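User: Structure please.
Assistant: Input sequence and predicted structure:
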Amino acid sequence: MIKQLIRPHILNLKPYSSARDEYKGNEGIFLDANENALGTVASEILYNRYPDPHQWALKNKLATIKNTSAHNIFIGNGSDEPIDLLIRLLCSPAEDNVVICPPTYGMYAVSAAINNVAVKEVLLNEDFQLNTSEIIAVINDNTKIIFVCSPNNPTGNNINPVDIELLLHNFNGIVVVDEAYIDFTTTPSFINKLQQYENLVVLQTFSKAWGLANLRVGVLYGNEVLMHYLDSIKPPYNVNGYSQQAALFALNNIQQKENYVNEINAERIILSKALQQFDFVKKVHASVANFLLIYVSNANDLYNHLVANSIVVRNRSTQPLCENTLRITMGTAIENKLLLEVLSTYNQ
């Protein structure tokens, strides 16, 4: 009986599979979810009062750091909430569509599917860059959002900013630039171009470099009018007080984040070189994020070998252009060393 009450498109929905869905254990070295393995910062807060529903203290602090206005900022429960809210705000179910560029972050498509919004896929090219001409060719009057992840997940490379600006110039809808991994790069953020493009939205997060993945704090930057309406449709207390205070505490300790970034980037260079010694590693894709995508002889077999030795990475082989690939998040120096030791015991 219950199934008869559920909307048909939800019954057929393929849900997002997180790293923790794919590996059920609690013990091991977790190099699968692109978290910060080095640590985090936190603070104390009372729990008997509701939090600020508009997160003004956090917005004001971010506005100062990012050289923008607090009214150009939306704080979400992770980045997934603003992704969902953007689709709900801009797209009419069963009428409108969004464009994604696989291989990319899976929640763009899942959020669209939940909201009964069609998804147009335009694959990245062999260099994992945008096929801008093809994207422009597929958009129509019902295309409301183009999602671009840069640095891209799971490939780890920056998307050419010239291509992103080409889309901004040639598309009347919203271009979302997801910069979840921007802290690991020296590439300027597209936040600097908000005044230039009314249709630009930039996503960032405290889950990666800041080490606050457990607290779910995502940040969306964009046009003030768009932020106003997003604020109107969100749940009243969508970001809890502890998360707000921890994010503020982190912003007052930026040097700690920079230390994490420097160590993670150094480990990525070391691990990238070390992985190339194994004959079953066919290619280590260049990355500016906190993870590496590697092409191997048999991804399923190697993944199982690592899991059997309590090391959990992410098998990305089902993604377009990613056959026989594993995504490896940077762990601590000790964890990365153990990974290499386990890899050295692998017999194809």
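The mean pLDDT is 90.
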